[in-house]
């Protein structure tokens, strides 16, 4: 089977809130010194899910990423995890896009290669949109199952487990189809040193707008439908009253009394 | 000529679901600022009778697609009928909940209409001059907020985070016209199909409905200790929620996780025990009426969100707290 996984490089998702700064000119994150970007967490889970399925039924995992400035050892992590190929989508025309323009580029790349199953994270850890997978599905005219957990190939369909508010659903979708990975995929594997070295030697394929037959007015800033007016930090004025007591037990009792005062209990 | 605001309401267990009131609350505000109508649309099976319940909650008009084939959410079928309703209503703004339905349906519709969509928003406002939509939404795992202009194509679209919007006080004197739309579905368009649905019986109070939620983090330390939180929740008639860290450690089930990509709760009281207060998690509990916290680290971000805080080991504080609570509730 042919698996295609969309991954995105994002600023380090583990920057502590106290060090989280914004470049208000560019409406982007100003990462602290020494922090390295990462593959978005859910996209890593999508890679993991693809690798498990490939190990199960055989085939090839191709990773696709849209990024004009990738950090090579970051964007090659899916290769080090065990993916077979990496395709980078790069063009100045892709700068400044939104979910829709990203999906247009990714959908064009998907049309250029054969695939049975596309996987990507349920949302990227930067803009938290959760739109791109669904947009690509619509553009390609294939079904989608979002926020998936455990996956299994069942003949000409993929079988998806998804947690609901009071239990779980089993959903089947016929190939070709798109799945977005949620928390319940589990934990992504750590690449072995040997595989990191091997991935470092692999050359990614690079495609631009022309290779993909894309109209420059439909991608990047020119094609974007939405615009971020402002990226900002919420002022959180702390009004906490710390309960001081001689012993932890007394503090506990006082806390309970506060709840009575609030009429919560 | 596009006009008005359209919300897609939801039913749960045969009645109008809570999210519908929240959507009508924000929808009313948007419609009034444009001086236009608010329409509520419902898709489902056996819902035509009860859909008029949207009028007291703020709707001017109600659209219903009632068909046995729409009993369960099905991606392609719902997208098809929602698109049909949307074209008939022709609104300036469309709002849904960031629910299981909204997460799937909203981007599909936005793509079909090639229009701007903002997901999981906390605040929406309409621009009277352009009839456009401005959305404020958490980004970067809740560490920052973005103000997004949903663009010039109409309708503009958004989903709002569950429990982030306030419902109106019901006004039973309100009424309006109910328009029925024929589903007219071709069954062969349904591709991704729910083949099995397993309900897990919840003991005690359901997390989403609980008036009091006790949250436990990685700091709880073991499955045995997790039982203590459950015992306390039992006494307080509450439910236990968790962080990603606690789930990763296997202390609790994944369906108890609270946060930006998991469940959102808005109880009267959220009591965070051994939770540092990462943005990802706080996004899921931010609309609680009161937050209190116990944490051994005086610098933990959780205290910045809290009304009351106690610094110390939860193991030392909770027993006396629990005893006092027991005494107070049995009075």
Question: How is this structure best described in words?
Answer:
- The complex is a heterodimer of chains A (265) and B (331).
- Chain A has 265 residues and is α/β, with parallel strands linked by helices.
- Chain A has a single domain (2-223), classed as 3-Layer(aba) Sandwich (Rossmann fold).
- Helix content of chain A is 29%, strand content 28%.
- Chain A has helices at residues 41-57, 72-75, 77-81, 99-112, 132-140, 193-201, 220-223, 248-261; strands spanning 2-6, 9-10, 21-23, 28-30, 38-39, 60-66, 85-89, 117-121, 144-148, 151-154, 157-164, 167-174, 177-181, 205-207, 227-232, 241-242.
- In chain A, the strands form four sheets. Chain A has a seven-stranded parallel sheet with strand order 9-13-8-1-6-7-14.
- In chain A, a hairpin with a 2-residue loop joins strand 11 and strand 12 (167-174).
- Chain B starts with a strand and ends with a helix.
- Chain B has helices spanning 18-34, 75-89, 100-113, 223-235, 244-248, 279-282, 314-329; strands at 5-8, 11-12, 15-16, 38-44, 61-66, 93-97, 117-121, 123-127, 132-139, 144-149, 156-160, 177-180, 193-199, 212-216, 239-242, 269-273, 290-295, 308-311.
- Chain B has two domains: 5-189, HUPs (Rossmann fold); 207-329, Rossmann fold, CATH 3.40.50.1220.
- Chain B is elongated and about 65 Å long.
- The chains are: A alpha/beta (265), B alpha/beta (331).
- The interface between A and B is large, with 84 and 90 residues.
Could you write a compact summary of the structure shown?
The complex is a heterodimer of chains A (265) and B (331). With 265 residues, chain A is α/β, with parallel strands linked by helices.
CATH fold name of the largest domain in chain B, please?
Rossmann fold
Annotated CATH homologous superfamily of the largest domain in chain B? HUPs
Task: Name the overall outline of chain B.
Answer: elongated
- Helix/strand structural class of chain A: alpha/beta
Q: Please compute the radius of gyration of chain B using only Cα atoms.
A: 22 Å
Q: What is the annotated CATH architecture of chain A?
A: 3-Layer(aba) Sandwich
Fraction in helix of chain B: 25-40%
- Give the assembly state of these chains: heterodimer
What's the β-strand tally of chain B? 18
């Amino acid at each position: 089977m042919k698996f295609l996984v969309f991954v995105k490089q994002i600023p380090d998702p583990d920057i502590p809130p106290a060090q989280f700064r914004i470049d208000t000119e560019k409406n982007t994150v100003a990462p602290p010194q020494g922090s390295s970007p990462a593959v978005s967490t859910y996209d890593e889970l999508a890679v993991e899910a693809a690798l498990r399925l490939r190990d199960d039924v055989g085939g090839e995992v191709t990773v696709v990423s849209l990024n004009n400035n990738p950090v090579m050892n970051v964007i090659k992590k899916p290769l080090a995890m065990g993916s077979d190929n990496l395709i980078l989508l790069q063009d100045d025309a892709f700068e400044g896009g939104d979910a829709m323009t990203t999906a247009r580029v990714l959908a064009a790349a998907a049309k250029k290669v054969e695939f049975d199953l596309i996987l990507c994270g349920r949302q990227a850890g930067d803009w938290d949109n959760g739109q791109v997978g669904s947009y690509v599905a619509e553009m390609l005219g294939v079904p989608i199952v979002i926020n998936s957990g455990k996956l299994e190939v069942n003949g000409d369909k993929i079988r998806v487990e998804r947690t609901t508010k009071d239990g779980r659903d089993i959903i089947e979708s016929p190939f070709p189809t798109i799945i977005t990975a949620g928390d319940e995929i589990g934990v992504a594997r750590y690449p072995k040193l040997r595989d990191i070295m091997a991935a470092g030697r692999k050359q990614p394929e690079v495609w631009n707008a022309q290779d993909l037959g894309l109209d420059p007015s439909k991608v990047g800033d020119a094609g974007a439908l939405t615009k971020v007016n402002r990226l900002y930090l919420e002022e959180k004025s702390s009004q906490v009253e710390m309960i001081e007591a001689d012993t932890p037990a007394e503090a506990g009792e006082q806390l309970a009394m506060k709840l009575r005062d609030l009429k919560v209990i | 000529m596009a006009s008005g605001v359209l919300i897609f309401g939801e039913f749960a267990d045969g009645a109008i679901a809570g999210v519908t009131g929240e959507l009508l609350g924000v929808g009313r505000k948007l419609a009034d600022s444009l001086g236009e109508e608010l329409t509520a649309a419902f898709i489902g099976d056996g819902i035509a009778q009860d859909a008029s319940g949207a009028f007291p909650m703020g709707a001017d008009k109600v659209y219903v697609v009632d068909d046995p084939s729409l009993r369960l959410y099905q991606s392609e079928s719902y997208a098809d009928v929602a698109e049909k309703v949307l074209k008939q209503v022709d609104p300036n703004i469309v709002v849904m909940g960031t629910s299981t339905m909204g997460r799937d349906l909203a981007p599909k519709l936005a793509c079909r209409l090639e229009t701007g969509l903002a997901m999981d928003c906390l605040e929406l406002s309409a621009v009277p001059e352009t009839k456009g939509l401005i959305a404020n939404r958490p980004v970067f795992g809740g560490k920052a907020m973005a103000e997004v202009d949903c663009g010039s194509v109409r309708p503009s679209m958004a989903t709002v985070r569950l429990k982030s919007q306030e419902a109106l006080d019901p006004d039973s004197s309100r009424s309006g016209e109910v328009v029925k739309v024929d589903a007219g579905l071709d069954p062969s368009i349904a591709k991704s199909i729910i083949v099995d649905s397993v309900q897990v019986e919840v003991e005690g109070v359901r997390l989403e409905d609980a008036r009091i939620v006790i949250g436990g983090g990685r700091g709880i330390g073991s499955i045995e200790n997790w039982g203590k939180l459950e015992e306390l929740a039992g006494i307080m008639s509450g439910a236990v929620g968790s962080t990603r860290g606690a789930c990763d450690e296997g202390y609790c089930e994944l369906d108890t996780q609270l946060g930006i990509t998991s469940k959102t709760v808005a109880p009267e009281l959220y009591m965070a025990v051994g939770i540092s207060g990462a943005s990802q998690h706080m996004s899921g509990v931010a609309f609680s009426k009161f937050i209190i916290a116990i944490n051994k680290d005086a610098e933990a971000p959780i205290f910045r969100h809290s009304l009351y805080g106690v610094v110390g080991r939860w193991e030392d504080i909770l027993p006396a707290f629990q005893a006092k609570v027991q005494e107070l509730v049995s009075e």
